[in-house]
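ok trying this again, last paste got cut off
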Amino acid sequence: MHDRSCNRREYSTKNCHAYQTPEQIVKSAGIVLYPEDKTKLDLVGDLADGVGLQLNIDRATAFIFTLYGKTSTVRTQAATIKDMLPKKVSI
């Protein structure tokens, strides 16, 4: 069963399955999970829908970055370029 809704920047999908890890859940739902994304599994108190776990994904911000003539799509949880550089660039 899939139930998708979109509200502003939030996107949700309901997927019934027996998986217990974020990686298994997103694969089952057809969602791409990037290494920079943060995941959190929470127990759902109301089991009326047959769902016991809720996976929340804090998506990393993706942007195009050019350094020394090389252009790449980069994802980060950092709030600023200054905070992101030490994690992404070996200078």
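PB: full thing came through this time. Residues 43 and 53 are 5 Å apart (CA to CA).
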